[in-house]
Amino acid sequence: MTKKLSPAKAAAIIQKLEKMYGLPKPDLSFKNLYQLLIAVVLSAQTTDIQVNKATVELFKKYKDFKSLAAANPGDVESIIKSTGFYRTKAKNIIALSKIITEKYKGEVPSSMQELTLLPGVGRKTANVVLSIGFGIPALAVDTHVSRLAQRLGFSTNKDPDKIEQDICSLLEEESWAKAHLLLIKHGRILCKARNPLCIKCNLQKECLYFKANLSSSSKETP
Predict the structure, then answer these.
(1) Among 138, 134, 135, which Cα is nearest to 123's?
(2) Is domain 33-133 in CATH 3.50.50.60, yes or no?
(3) Identified catalytic residue from 142, 161, 162, 166
(4) Is residue 124 annotated as part of the catalytic site, yes or no?
Protein backbone atom coordinates (compact mmCIF):
# COMPACT_ATOMS: atom_id res chain seq x y z
CA MET A 1 0.00 0.00 0.00
CA THR A 2 1.31 3.45 -0.94
CA LYS A 3 2.17 5.61 2.04
CA LYS A 4 -0.17 8.59 2.28
CA LEU A 5 1.37 11.89 1.28
CA SER A 6 1.60 14.38 4.12
CA PRO A 7 0.36 17.98 3.79
CA ALA A 8 3.94 19.21 4.28
CA LYS A 9 5.26 17.05 1.45
CA ALA A 10 2.32 17.98 -0.77
CA ALA A 11 3.04 21.68 -0.20
CA ALA A 12 6.74 21.09 -0.90
CA ILE A 13 5.89 19.52 -4.27
CA ILE A 14 3.82 22.54 -5.26
CA GLN A 15 6.65 24.83 -4.14
CA LYS A 16 9.10 22.92 -6.34
CA LEU A 17 6.76 23.22 -9.30
CA GLU A 18 6.43 26.94 -8.65
CA LYS A 19 10.22 27.27 -8.71
CA MET A 20 10.25 25.44 -12.04
CA TYR A 21 7.45 27.38 -13.74
CA GLY A 22 6.74 30.48 -11.70
CA LEU A 23 3.07 31.38 -11.39
CA PRO A 24 1.52 30.12 -14.64
CA LYS A 25 -1.46 31.78 -16.24
CA PRO A 26 -4.34 29.90 -17.85
CA ASP A 27 -3.60 28.93 -21.46
CA LEU A 28 -7.14 29.77 -22.57
CA SER A 29 -7.55 33.29 -23.93
CA PHE A 30 -10.36 35.33 -22.37
CA LYS A 31 -11.12 38.88 -21.31
CA ASN A 32 -14.14 38.45 -19.06
CA LEU A 33 -16.36 35.87 -17.38
CA TYR A 34 -18.48 35.40 -20.49
CA GLN A 35 -15.45 34.48 -22.56
CA LEU A 36 -13.96 32.33 -19.80
CA LEU A 37 -17.09 30.21 -19.36
CA ILE A 38 -17.60 29.68 -23.09
CA ALA A 39 -13.92 28.89 -23.65
CA VAL A 40 -13.84 26.32 -20.85
CA VAL A 41 -16.97 24.59 -22.16
CA LEU A 42 -15.38 24.43 -25.62
CA SER A 43 -12.12 23.04 -24.19
CA ALA A 44 -13.62 19.62 -23.45
CA GLN A 45 -11.86 16.86 -25.41
CA THR A 46 -9.57 19.26 -27.25
CA THR A 47 -6.56 21.52 -26.73
CA ASP A 48 -6.54 25.10 -25.50
CA ILE A 49 -4.73 26.02 -28.72
CA GLN A 50 -7.68 24.84 -30.80
CA VAL A 51 -10.13 26.66 -28.55
CA ASN A 52 -8.17 29.92 -28.72
CA LYS A 53 -8.18 29.78 -32.52
CA ALA A 54 -11.94 29.28 -32.61
CA THR A 55 -12.87 31.87 -29.99
CA VAL A 56 -11.14 34.70 -31.83
CA GLU A 57 -13.92 34.62 -34.43
CA LEU A 58 -16.63 33.48 -32.00
CA PHE A 59 -16.13 36.37 -29.57
CA LYS A 60 -15.74 38.87 -32.38
CA LYS A 61 -19.15 37.89 -33.75
CA TYR A 62 -20.89 37.21 -30.43
CA LYS A 63 -19.70 39.70 -27.83
CA ASP A 64 -21.86 38.59 -24.91
CA PHE A 65 -24.38 36.00 -23.72
CA LYS A 66 -27.31 37.91 -25.22
CA SER A 67 -25.91 37.87 -28.74
CA LEU A 68 -24.80 34.24 -28.48
CA ALA A 69 -28.22 33.24 -27.15
CA ALA A 70 -29.76 34.53 -30.37
CA ALA A 71 -27.19 32.91 -32.64
CA ASN A 72 -27.96 30.53 -35.46
CA PRO A 73 -26.69 27.07 -34.39
CA GLY A 74 -25.25 26.38 -37.83
CA ASP A 75 -23.19 29.57 -37.74
CA VAL A 76 -21.78 28.71 -34.31
CA GLU A 77 -21.04 25.15 -35.40
CA SER A 78 -19.01 26.34 -38.37
CA ILE A 79 -16.92 28.61 -36.15
CA ILE A 80 -16.15 26.03 -33.44
CA LYS A 81 -15.93 22.96 -35.67
CA SER A 82 -12.20 22.53 -35.07
CA THR A 83 -12.78 22.00 -31.33
CA GLY A 84 -14.58 18.68 -31.91
CA PHE A 85 -18.07 17.61 -30.82
CA TYR A 86 -19.06 20.94 -32.31
CA ARG A 87 -22.79 20.26 -32.67
CA THR A 88 -23.18 19.40 -28.99
CA LYS A 89 -20.92 22.25 -27.93
CA ALA A 90 -22.80 24.76 -30.07
CA LYS A 91 -26.11 23.57 -28.64
CA ASN A 92 -24.77 23.86 -25.09
CA ILE A 93 -23.18 27.31 -25.32
CA ILE A 94 -26.28 28.75 -26.99
CA ALA A 95 -28.56 27.14 -24.39
CA LEU A 96 -26.48 28.28 -21.41
CA SER A 97 -26.30 31.77 -22.90
CA LYS A 98 -30.11 31.91 -23.01
CA ILE A 99 -30.34 30.79 -19.38
CA ILE A 100 -27.74 33.28 -18.17
CA THR A 101 -29.37 36.09 -20.19
CA GLU A 102 -32.88 35.36 -18.93
CA LYS A 103 -32.30 34.03 -15.41
CA TYR A 104 -29.10 35.80 -14.35
CA LYS A 105 -29.40 39.04 -16.36
CA GLY A 106 -26.26 38.27 -18.31
CA GLU A 107 -24.07 37.62 -15.28
CA VAL A 108 -22.26 34.31 -14.71
CA PRO A 109 -23.48 32.69 -11.46
CA SER A 110 -20.81 32.20 -8.80
CA SER A 111 -21.85 28.98 -7.11
CA MET A 112 -21.06 25.35 -7.93
CA GLN A 113 -24.74 24.41 -7.72
CA GLU A 114 -25.88 27.06 -10.19
CA LEU A 115 -23.00 26.58 -12.60
CA THR A 116 -23.40 22.82 -12.87
CA LEU A 117 -27.07 23.23 -13.79
CA LEU A 118 -26.02 25.00 -16.98
CA PRO A 119 -25.84 22.91 -20.19
CA GLY A 120 -22.33 21.59 -20.85
CA VAL A 121 -21.00 22.63 -17.46
CA GLY A 122 -19.69 19.86 -15.21
CA ARG A 123 -17.80 20.08 -11.96
CA LYS A 124 -14.43 20.54 -13.67
CA THR A 125 -15.66 23.46 -15.76
CA ALA A 126 -17.37 25.01 -12.75
CA ASN A 127 -14.20 24.75 -10.67
CA VAL A 128 -12.18 26.54 -13.37
CA VAL A 129 -14.71 29.37 -13.53
CA LEU A 130 -14.89 29.66 -9.74
CA SER A 131 -11.13 29.67 -9.19
CA ILE A 132 -9.94 31.67 -12.19
CA GLY A 133 -12.99 33.82 -12.80
CA PHE A 134 -14.10 34.59 -9.26
CA GLY A 135 -11.03 33.85 -7.16
CA ILE A 136 -13.03 31.36 -5.10
CA PRO A 137 -10.94 28.44 -3.75
CA ALA A 138 -11.52 25.50 -6.10
CA LEU A 139 -9.44 22.87 -7.85
CA ALA A 140 -10.38 21.46 -11.24
CA VAL A 141 -9.26 17.93 -12.10
CA ASP A 142 -8.52 17.28 -15.77
CA THR A 143 -6.49 14.45 -17.30
CA HIS A 144 -3.17 16.13 -16.43
CA VAL A 145 -4.09 16.74 -12.79
CA SER A 146 -5.45 13.21 -12.50
CA ARG A 147 -2.28 11.66 -13.93
CA LEU A 148 0.09 13.70 -11.78
CA ALA A 149 -1.99 13.09 -8.67
CA GLN A 150 -1.31 9.37 -9.10
CA ARG A 151 2.36 9.74 -9.96
CA LEU A 152 3.19 12.17 -7.17
CA GLY A 153 1.13 10.45 -4.48
CA PHE A 154 -1.62 13.03 -3.99
CA SER A 155 -4.27 10.39 -4.63
CA THR A 156 -4.77 6.72 -5.43
CA ASN A 157 -8.32 7.29 -6.65
CA LYS A 158 -9.41 7.26 -10.28
CA ASP A 159 -12.64 9.22 -9.85
CA PRO A 160 -12.06 12.97 -10.54
CA ASP A 161 -14.28 14.07 -7.64
CA LYS A 162 -12.34 11.91 -5.17
CA ILE A 163 -9.02 13.07 -6.61
CA GLU A 164 -10.18 16.65 -6.09
CA GLN A 165 -11.07 15.88 -2.48
CA ASP A 166 -7.71 14.18 -1.88
CA ILE A 167 -5.64 17.03 -3.28
CA CYS A 168 -7.69 19.70 -1.52
CA SER A 169 -7.35 17.87 1.80
CA LEU A 170 -3.56 18.07 1.50
CA LEU A 171 -3.20 21.71 0.45
CA GLU A 172 -4.27 25.04 1.93
CA GLU A 173 -7.24 26.64 0.17
CA GLU A 174 -5.14 29.53 -1.11
CA SER A 175 -2.95 27.02 -2.99
CA TRP A 176 -5.70 25.18 -4.84
CA ALA A 177 -5.89 27.38 -7.95
CA LYS A 178 -2.11 27.62 -8.17
CA ALA A 179 -1.72 23.87 -7.77
CA HIS A 180 -4.25 23.25 -10.54
CA LEU A 181 -2.34 25.43 -13.02
CA LEU A 182 1.09 24.12 -11.99
CA LEU A 183 0.10 20.46 -12.27
CA ILE A 184 -1.36 21.10 -15.73
CA LYS A 185 1.79 22.95 -16.80
CA HIS A 186 4.04 20.15 -15.58
CA GLY A 187 1.84 17.54 -17.23
CA ARG A 188 2.03 19.28 -20.58
CA ILE A 189 5.75 20.03 -20.54
CA LEU A 190 7.47 17.13 -18.73
CA CYS A 191 5.15 14.65 -17.04
CA LYS A 192 3.43 13.55 -20.23
CA ALA A 193 1.05 10.61 -20.39
CA ARG A 194 3.39 8.75 -22.72
CA ASN A 195 7.16 8.98 -22.51
CA PRO A 196 7.40 11.47 -19.62
CA LEU A 197 10.68 13.39 -19.55
CA CYS A 198 11.71 12.15 -16.11
CA ILE A 199 15.40 12.89 -16.72
CA LYS A 200 14.60 16.63 -16.85
CA CYS A 201 12.29 16.62 -13.82
CA ASN A 202 13.16 18.01 -10.38
CA LEU A 203 10.59 15.79 -8.69
CA GLN A 204 12.34 12.44 -9.11
CA LYS A 205 12.66 11.96 -5.34
CA GLU A 206 8.94 12.57 -4.83
CA CYS A 207 7.64 10.73 -7.89
CA LEU A 208 6.19 7.27 -7.37
CA TYR A 209 6.15 6.68 -11.12
CA PHE A 210 9.87 7.42 -11.46
CA LYS A 211 10.76 5.26 -8.46
CA ALA A 212 8.70 2.34 -9.75
CA ASN A 213 10.30 2.50 -13.18
CA LEU A 214 13.76 2.90 -11.68
CA SER A 215 13.16 -0.20 -9.56
CA SER A 216 11.92 -2.16 -12.56
CA SER A 217 14.96 -1.15 -14.61
CA SER A 218 17.37 -2.23 -11.87
CA LYS A 219 15.68 -5.63 -11.61
CA GLU A 220 16.00 -6.16 -15.35
CA THR A 221 19.70 -5.33 -15.32
CA PRO A 222 21.75 -8.59 -15.35
Answers:
(1) 138
(2) no
(3) 142
(4) yes
